[in-house]
Specification:
Blueprint (H helix, E strand, L loop, with lengths): L5 H7 L7 H18 L2 H22 L1
Length: about 60
Amino acid sequence: MARETYLETRRRLGLPDIPQELLDEFRAQLELEEQRRNDPEWIAEQEACYEAVLARLQRKAR
């Protein structure tokens, strides 16, 4: 038994096709997100924020 693709399943269920413009926009957003997550400066900002939140939680737990 062959497996259906995502598009075949959507069509079989009568769901509308996703416009190509939306797919392109989504892919562009994913690409930007991936670039940001590989940015050392962004990573450092996130780590600093996590450390601050963790410190606050540890103080509350005492």
